[in-house]
Each structure stands twice: as C-alpha cells, then as structure tokens.
User: Fold this.
Amino acid sequence: MWWTWTALAPGPVALDTLGSPFDTVLAVYKGTAIDALDVVAFNNDEDSDAAPPILTSSVTFQAIAGTTYVIAVDGHEGAAGTITLALAPTPPPDNDHFADAELLSPTSDVLVSDNYSATAESSEPAHASSPAANSVWWQWTAPADGILVLSTEFSESDTRLALYTGSALNALTLVAANDNEPVNGNAWSLIRTRVTAGMTYRIALDGPEGLLFLSHTHTALIQDNDAFANRIDLGSSATASTTGTNLGASSEANEPTHRGQPAASSVWWKWTAPTTGWTSISTTGSSFNSRIAIYTGSSLNALTAVTNVPSGTAVPSQVNFHTAAGTTYVIAVDGIGNDEGQVALAISAGTPPTAPDNDNFIDRIVLTGSTPILVASGNNTYASSESGEPAHASQPAAHSVWYQWTAPFSGPALLDGTAMAFAPRLSVYTGTAVNALTPIAESAAPGDDLIEFTAIAGTVYHISIDDAGTFASGGDIAFALGYQVPANDDFVDAEDLANVLPATGSGFTTQASAESGEPAHASVTASHSIWWTWTAPASGLIIIETTGSTADTLLGVYTGSAVNALTLVASNDDAEGARTSLVTFTATAGTVYRIAVDAFEGSVGAIALSVHSASAPVVPVNDNFANAIDIGTDQPISLSGTNQNATAQIGEPAHAGNTATASVWWKWTAPSSTTVSLDTLGSNEDTVLAVYTGTTVSTLTFIASNDDAGGGILQSTLAFNAIGGTTYYFAVDGYDGAQGNITLNFAVAPPANDDFVNSICNDCCDGTASHHQCTWNNTSSPIDSGLRSADQQLPQWET
Assistant:
C-alpha cells in the first residue's frame, strides 16, 4: 500500500508500523514514477533478536522542507493484515545525555544506533577538537588490561569519536579522540588505545545526524612490555620469534631516539646471543610501519646503540648486525611516524653468507660494455671495510663493494644509484691501491644517490658503493654509470642567454647528438650540437664566437621556432685559420636568435661561447675566474688566447708578485698524480703566470708562479706536482698591464716506466706477489725526440 507525505520543515522524522499485527516491510522513496524511485530509507524488522521478536518496521530519515516522500508498506513474504502507520518528528535518542549513557558489553559488540534529534549539553567538551553538536553516549568498563578498538565504520555521517574517564560531564579526562580514520583519512572514526582493568570509560559519538554504527573490541594483554624495565626475555636460542603490540604504548623519560625518530610507542625485548656471528632481526608480518633499534646496557639512560641508524618507511623493518657470544642485546620496536599495530618479531643468528666477490678493492669488478652501463646484481649486506680504506661520504667505510670503470669519453659523467634498495654512499676515486686513492666525487651524505663528475677519456675510475654506516643493513646493488647528456642538447632545451650584451655560455659537446630535421651547421652535417638562445637588446653589429673552446667547432646562428624550420642568419667553421668559429651579423632589437655549436668530424670537448657587440671592446670569454676554459685531456697541448680588454676581479690575488690587471684563466683536472710543465713561450707580450686551487677568485690557494723565464725572456715558465683528481686554475696576465696575444703550452711528465729499461715488475706493482692488477697513465710518453698527442697509442713497459 502507498502513501505520500510532504515535509513542512526540515528535520529528522520517525516512521513506523509498530501498531500493525503482522510482519511488515517499510520503505520511503522520492520520485514521481514507480519505475524511477530513489530510496530514502527502509526497514524489515524493528528488532528480530528481541524476545519475542519485533517484526514490525521503523525508519528514521532527515526530511527536507517542501519535499514529497512516497511511503510503501508491504507484508514480509506475503503476510497481510491491518496496517497502522505512524509518522512524527524523531525524539532524541535514549542515550542523548551523558547521564543516560548506554552500557556496552565488556568484550566485543557492534551496535546500530542513530543521533537524530540528539543535542549537546551545557559544559560538554569538544569531541575530536570540534564543539559538541549531536552527541550520544556509551559507558564501558575494561574487564582486563588490554587494547580497546573503537570504530564507527559504515556510519552514514561524518563521525567524531572521543573516549574519556570521569564521572561528571564537566570533569572528564580525555583518553583518545579521532575525527577521520587515520590510515586512509576516511570520514568514519577509529580509536586504538591502552585500557586499564576495572576502569570505566565514557564514549561520545558525535557528527551530523544519521544512522550510526559503533563497534568495540577488547584484547587482553598477556605481557606488558611498554616499559624498558618490563622488557620480555627471548632467551638465548639461535632463532626466536614472538608477537606483541605497541598499541597504546608510550615513551619514557631518558629514552633514546630509535632509528632517527623520537621514541613514541616503543615496546621492549631482550635476547642473549648464543654465538659470535651475524644476526638478523626483522618485524616481517607486523601490521604497521616499524623501526627496530638494538642496544646493550641494563638501564634506559645508559644504553649503547648497536644498530640505530636512520631507517626509511618500508615495511617490514630489518637489521643485520654482528653479535658477540654471551652478550645480551636489548631490542626496541617502535612505529615510524607514531604508527601502531601488532608486532611480529623474529631473530635468526648464525654464520653469514659468503662476503661479496667484490668486497675488497683488489677484487673490484671491471665494468665493460656500451655506455651507459647498468648494474643490477650484487649485494653489500655482508661486505666489510679494509685496512687503509678511505672514508666514503665523510663516514668510515662499513659495507663497501668495489667496481672499476675506464671512461670511454671526456665530459660530464653520472653515477645514478636511485634504484638502490637502501640509502647508499657513492664514491668515485682514481689510484691503484685502497690506501692511496684520490677522491673525485662522492655523495654529500648517506642517501645522496646521484653524483656527477667530469670524466677524462682513458682514465681508470674506482667506484665504491657503501651503505649508511657501520650498523646499516645494506641490500641489493643497482646503479647506472655513463655520460650526462648536455642539458641543452636539444633545440627545445636551449640555454637562454637572456637579452644582455655581452653574453657568455659554456658546456660540453661530449655525448650531445643531432636531431631529426636539424640543419647542417656551416655546411657540415649535424652530429654533436648543443643550443643557446639570445634575444638582441638593441639593433647593431654583433659578433658570436667560440674562441677558447677545446673542440674543433662549427657555429650556426638562426631564427625560427622549430629545429626543422630555421632560417640561417650566419655560420662559420674555422675563424681565420683557427679551429674555433666566429660570425658577424646585424642583429635586430627584440629578435630571438638560435645558436648551435657543433663538433667538426666528432671533435667533442669543452665549448666557450661569447656574444658581444662588434663596436664594443671584445672581452675574452675567460676573463673571469668563473669562466675559466677547461683545457680537457689532450697532452701536450698549445692553447691560443688573448688578454686584450681583459680585467682584474675584486679579491683577485697578485700573480707572480704583480698586481692583477688584465688576467685570463684556464683550468685542468689531473687524472692522476704527476709533474706538470706550463709556459707562455710564443706570447707576444711580457706575461706573468700563476697556478692555484680553490673555488672562488678571492679564496684561492697558491701553488706556483713565474714572471720571466730568464735569460732576457719576458714570457713565463713553471712546473709543479699535480695531485690526481685535483682541479688547477692557470692565470695568465700581462706584466704591469701589458695586453696582447697569449700562447699557453701545457705538458705532463712521462710515466716512470716509459722506457724499456725502467719496466715495472708486474708481480710487485701492488705490493703482493699473488695479484697482478696495474694501471698507468701513458698520455705523455715521449717517442723518439717528438711528442705525440693523447689520442695516439703510446707504449709503456712491464715485466
């Protein structure tokens, strides 16, 4: 049978068939057609579990003023009889007030209730930080010490839940509260907390009016190891396992931080190692993000950390550490980010697996193959440090494994450890023995899993992979090693030189590539181009040049917005016989020019780019320390330059005792320790020459200098001992302000075993007679009376 009813005002409405003498079904809808009704509320039995069961029906719903509701009453499974239908505003729930709190069963139960027409009381506290509005109350007494879980899941409104102790509404003590369920942020509420036997707790459930579900579960504590003094003894067997919980656990005064986070919900065990050896402790199977810290000591304020390095957020947590037979270890398990749940703890002691094959430097794995090289195997969990091994990333070596790589190119290189299963320490060295390594690059701190360095073709690099520290657990090795493609390799990624004059740029063509549709630069097919953009600030004659580059360059200047639709403005291969390039053209104010620098016939290397007005003095591209030209790896080499229109910088030191006036700069990174010869013979001016190390012009460390070579020669010459991996800066200035063309000649001393008579005994090269691994630098080995360049094969001798 059907009725309709139109609500005159908003508010909760109760509808029932309680006066009907048969088993009814009740439903409320909105809609105007029987085949297009929207359900508002429905009910079959009022209380089928009552004795006797109440088989009539009742619903409560929130009415909207002016809305017409359609009401249907039917008989359950064909039952029929006289229907009594009652509709009235919903009365407040029986447990609306604190004093009328409904009693909950001691253990577990699920209640269906509502808070229609419920009200807040005078002096009622805010629940879960929101003022009381439509609260209802329950009362529960803990049957034993344990964990109480309260949940409002499946409630139809956004609930707020609070748990108190106390016997008066205006004198309650908050135990726990929650608005949105904390794991996934659902609108229903969840509380997990520790409760005390015999204590009576008051439960307030608030939120918008609607149907409520309240479940409560109590789990008794068999053992309470919240406090350090109550740590549970797991004995001294080689294997042990246990379960527990940190629900409702707390921290104590003087408790240490666990794995880099303050103690929050820690629980404690202890275990005595039966043997000396490696032990693994894990919380695999725990229901929360856990962290494990291992200590020795018998009092909370005097613990010594054994494994207490920072951990991540991965579940499960695991630590591997070396135990001493008979030593008692204290185990703390806490939650990451104050997480709580059930603990599953397992201990396994015994002989560790064999150390990695590349645990020691002498057994380093040689990396070969095409670049980039991908390494996705190996493990450092049971690796160790060696006598004389350097600190990696400023921390002592712990679980290092080693690799060797010979750079097939010169230019930016990248060691990428982002795929590691742990927080790594990455280090790159040159050298031939673990106690005589020269650092090239390393992680700034544990967890820095991406490092860059400038590789030199033919140089042998040694790579150490270590973990966070002595007591870290390490894990599977995975990294990539290879070139760093220039950021401005592609046209769309061109580096912007802005709209200023002069403008300078620098980079490497190493590992750069050509693009589909890219034009030929200076009539030579594109191969290793890099790109810049420059916007002309004013109209006028402009010069763009690559003077100072170590590569044989091609230069192209264009307009246009796509690499396959460019309009040529100017191009050049060799400028006045030099291997570098120069173009002159009339620029139009506001026009964006696209500048490509390529490598002629694959002559990759460092690029120095300069944009300046043809009518203004041309300032050398390497005028300032920060723009020092990298001379690369060719040895010996003779470089051409000028200090015409060069300047001195604020804080720049005097070179060879002569105040800086018109200095220009070059730089070089030593691939290995050697003796370097440097001179300016061939320059057409009176020069001064100086060598430094450092990172800024005002904080340089002096290495060597010279004014005049002697014998009436006004050019300069010097030699110094270079340390492998160190970057040296060469300053050339004119004496008392002299300016002109500069020639800088550079060479390194030949290796000790350059000649047959000085051949090195292979059996002794690393100090032992059982291994035969030697590396040399042969880039300056003299042949006959001449010198060959680094790209030629040069002999060295061994026996």
User: Anything to note?
Assistant: Residues 308-316, 763-796 have pLDDT under 50 and may be disordered.
